[in-house]
Amino acid sequence: MPLSENEQRLLEQMERALHAEDPKFATTMSGADLRSHYRRRALLASVAFVLGVVVLMTGAVSEIIPLGVAGFVVMLAAAWFAVTAWRRMPGPGEIGTFGPPAAPTGRTKRARQGGGFMDRVEERWRRRREQGPGR
Hints:
The radius of gyration is 25 Å and the shape is elongated. By secondary structure, the protein is mostly helical. The protein contains 6 helices and no strands. About 75% of the residues lie in helices and about 0% in strands.
């Protein structure tokens, strides 16, 4: 959901106040863009994958089996690295932090199965509003 003009204005004021109060912290936080970090990791993994293909083909053509196996292992590791980087990449507008991803909880599973606590509360609230004050 996009921010309203008033919310954007408040956010800009808070950002300016943060820059005025603690410029070192503000520049540190503005440089931590997770999308570019994970995009760079995925690009590096793609280059490693191509390198693995070259090593695999070199091993196959020269009939050096350990070299071909090594190329395959490099390809496999690069593919895994690229997929994990792609999955961790936050969507546009999402805010993330550096560090290991949070451990999965049971909430996501329950939310997919029929809704969690907040979904049930919102549904009750909607029903009460639809029924009106007289019941």
